[in-house]
Structures are given as C-alpha cells and as structure tokens.
Amino acid sequence: MEKISEILEGIQTLGIAGHVRPDGDCVGSCMGLYLYVKENYPQIQTDIYLDHPKEVFGYLDRMDEIKMETAGEKHYDVFITLDVSSKERIGLAGEYFDTAKKTVCIDHHISNLGFGQINYIKGGISSASEVLYNLLDEEKISRSVAMAIYTGIIHDTGVFQYSSTSPDTMRIAGELMKKGFNFNKIIDESFYQKTYIQNQVMGRVLAESILLQHGKLVVGYMKKKDMDFYRVDGKDLEGIVSQLRLTKGVEAAIFIYESQPQTFKVSLRSNGEVDVSKVAAFFGGGGHVRAAGCDMSGSMYDVINNLSDQIAIQLKD
Length: 317
Ligand code: AMP
Ligand code: MN
Ligand code: MN
Fold this sequence. Notes:
37% of the residues lie in helices and 19% in strands. It is an alpha/beta fold. The strands form two sheets. The chain has a six-stranded mixed sheet. Strands 2-1-3-4-5 form a five-stranded parallel sheet. A hairpin with a 3-residue loop joins strand 10 and strand 11. The chain starts with a helix and ends with a helix. The structure holds adenosine monophosphate and manganese (II) ion (MN) (2 copies). Adenosine monophosphate binds next to strand 10 and strand 11.
C-alpha cells in the first residue's frame, strides 16, 4: 500500500478503531482518517469506534459521531486500526476486525508484528498520525483533518520534544499549519492544560516519589484509596510520568496507579539508556524504547521492586 486511496477505491463500508484508553495520537489518527474519508469519499458508509475519548479533544469535528459501543454483527468491507500495537489492544470493535472482509493496520510501534492482512507499520516514525499523513493525498487534506493529525503528532512527540521528532515531522507539522488553525490553542488545551485537581494530584505524586538505583530511577505511585479521595481516574494522571522523567540525573521514570485493588497500570519512560519497551514486554505489555506500559498485579511494593529489578539489569549493561 502506497496511498490510502488504493484501499478505499470501490468499497461500500469501512470501520475504523484505535486502542484501549485512547490517547491523543490514537484519537488524532482515527479522527483524521475518519474526517478524510467522510469528506472525500462520502459514498462509503464509515463508522469510527473509540472508547470514551477525553473531552479535551472536543474541538475536533464530528466527535459526536464516534461510536462508544458495538451494535450486533457487522461485516465491514474494510476495517482499519490506527495506533494499535497488537490485536488484543483494539479498544472497541475487535469483533468487527475479526469479521471484516479486509483488515488494515496502520501503526508506528516497534513491538507491532503486523496483525492485519495489510500492514503499514513504520517503527521509527513519531506517531500513527504522521504515518497516516504519508498515506493521504495532500490536496485532499482539509483544515479539520489537519487539526486531527496535528493533535496526534503533538501528543506523541510531547510537542516536538521526544527523539522520535524528525525533520519530516516538523515539515509535516508545517504543511498542516498552512491549513490555518489555532495551533497554540490545540497545544495548550489538549496537551498542557490541567484541572486544579489534576495539578494537585501531580504535586502529591511528585512529593511522595522515590529515587532508586542510585538516583537513576524515579518512581511515583497512586493508590486506589487516594484516587477515590481526589475523585480522579487514570485519565487525570496523564503527564505525571513525563514530569518524573525530567528529574535531573534519572535514566528512567515509572508511574503506577491502582486501577483495580492490587492491579496496577504501569507507565515507563526513559531518557535513552534504558529500553523500557523491553521492561514492559517482560511483564506482558509493550510500547516504544522511551515510552512503554504494562499492567501488573500484586502488592504495590512487589510491583515496584519487580520493575526496579528489570530496570537494574539494563543499567548494569
Ligand atoms: P502510557 O504510559 O500508557 O502512556 O503508554 C506508553 C506507551 O506504551 C504507549 O505507546 C502504549 O501504546 C504502550 N502501552 C501502554 N500500556 C501497554 C500495554 N498494557 N500493552 C502494550 N503496550 C502498552
Ligand atoms: Mn497511543
Ligand atoms: Mn502513537
């Protein structure tokens, strides 16, 4: 596949889905493709499935058309996943992936082995949104599509900060800007802005964080009872691990929160020396060299110790 048009030509129905707990790149790439097809191929009956995207993405067009649950048996002509690293990670509509006549996987995770019939996976690229951009016809990209793709790129590059940001990423962001939207508003409101409570919780996690491995690893945590006290969920805790990573001297940062009693959602970040995707994969998760995640169960101290031991193995190399 060179261009998405090769896939869309002549089909009648299309399904689009992202991963569980959709992040900015997931929402941006899925909505980017959805809007592109709606605008340029109105004859295709297109559905998009995303599991409760955050309200901060409300500035994107047609967000109200997102389906948050499936409805009976369906056989799409084509089903496309974006930003999904493995089949089990399809957040919603995995059943429709299985029953589709043709499946397509568009992604940028190095851990992705290619679970579609057609795979367009570019491991080194900043975001699934940037991968998608390369499949679209430039002149068919509207302002609405550009806003969605731009959103995905800024979220997965930490606003052009991470090492996956390439000259191509910047060039594409520049092309998108030409479509004329308020990019500083998107960056502030979808990426940096926090509610008062979210800031309070981040402050608390930072205050209670611990340094391990001679200051090369920093760990932050939040227990369920504290999340209940502040009335926050996992979505409110995004960005905490990025702040931990910026601690001077650390090679890796871990943030864990208790999603269910004795079950933890683990976020890992690295400054380069440690490949955190290996650590996440060891515990059944995945991701990228510098950003990865997994789910673990047990006592909080066991979870931290087990993660710390795996980081230590790489720090010794
Ligand atoms: P997060 O820390 O949740 O922002 O995730 C960082 C990266 O790791 C993302 O690119 C995810 O795709 C990946 N990731 C997070 N959790 C998992 C998981 N349980 N299994 C596989 N990949 C994951
Ligand atoms: Mn993602
Ligand atoms: Mn991504």
